[in-house]
Amino acid sequence: MKKLSNLEFKKKFDSIADTYEKVSNSYTITRRAESFKIDSAEVILETGSGTGIISGLIDKSIICTDISYEMCKQAVRNNRENVICCDAEKLPIRSNILDGILSAETIYYLDNPQHFLSDSYSALKKKSKLMITVFNQDMKLVDRIRSFLRIFDKNQYFDDGQRDFISMGYLKQILEKNNFKITSIRKKVIFPFGSLHKLNLYLEKGRLNYFCYFIIIEAKCIK
Ligand SMILES: C[S@@+](CC[C@H](N)C(=O)[O-])C[C@H]1O[C@@H](n2cnc3c(N)ncnc32)[C@H](O)[C@@H]1O
Q1: Of 55, 68, 59, 66, which Cα lies nearest the Cα of 10?
Q2: Does any ligand 1 atom lie closer than 6 A to the CB of residue 219?
Q3: Gap between the Cα atoms of 210 and 54, Å rounded
């Protein structure tokens, strides 16, 4: 199936904005959010922030941005202080102004992730950080099985139309090309259930972390 365009994803997420938080897995949201450590004095922007669910767990001063106007409206309803409706590939931000950009589960929706990286590079200050989470491409088959099973449970996460995720090889390559130096790569969540949190923490440290759902990448902006 052909990948949807940015505009088509915008429409998909517009249509789910009301129920996004209800159908999202609160355990995996928390695990993604805890990956990002920031200083509250820093100016941080989130791309693809949706309802502000992740940054709300980190620091309410984070600037939320999302291509979906309906998601942005939900973020405002969730008392997020700064919300901008924009495409992650066209950030309306001045150069050298941000201390950090975070982006959880968004980069693989983009028409051209390199536009996001070059805009991020421009907006970030020297030695500032880019923090990204992506669904583990090695777990694509499991994602397809889960998508199929959703047919039988309408309360599950909706079909967002995304069938492919970004490979780590390609992500590393484009980060480097856009002057980002990777400082850490971590993997998280084998079992997406809060009741198995301790088992996850244990398994994430060993070789079985190959089967983790999420990869968290931090990179430094080299200027
Ligand atoms: C899977 S949701 C992730 C939301 C939140 N970051 C989280 O981790 O729960 C993806 C979000 O990315 C947004 N998005 C998709 N394409 C985008 C683009 N080109 N620019 C900005 N946001 C985009 C969607 O509207 C949606 O809110």
Answers
A1: 68
A2: no
A3: 24
Mutate to test the pocket of ligand 1, among 4, 9, 35 (most ligand atoms within 8 A of CB): 9
Quick check: helix, strand or coil at residue 47? strand
Instruction: Report pTM.
Output: 0.93
Q: What is the mean pLDDT of residues 208-212?
A: 94
Secondary structure of 76-95 as H, E, C letters: HHCCCCCEEECCCCCCCCCC
103 CB under 6 A from ligand 1?
Answer: no
Q: What percent of the chain has pLDDT over 70?
A: 94
- Whole-number Å distance, alpha carbon 38 to ligand 1 midpoint, is 21
Ligand 1 close to Cβ of residue 162 (< 6 A): no
Give the CA angle between residues 70, 75, 81 to the nearest 5°. Answer: 135
Nearest to 102 by CA among 66, 72, 76, 71: 66
The CATH code that applies to domain 6-221 is: 3.40.50.150
Q: What was the pLDDT predicted at 159?
A: 75
Spatial neighbors of 44 by CB under 8 A, at least 6 apart, are 38, 55, 59, 61, 62, 63, 98, 99, 100, 101, 102
* Nearest ligand 1 atom, CA 10: 25
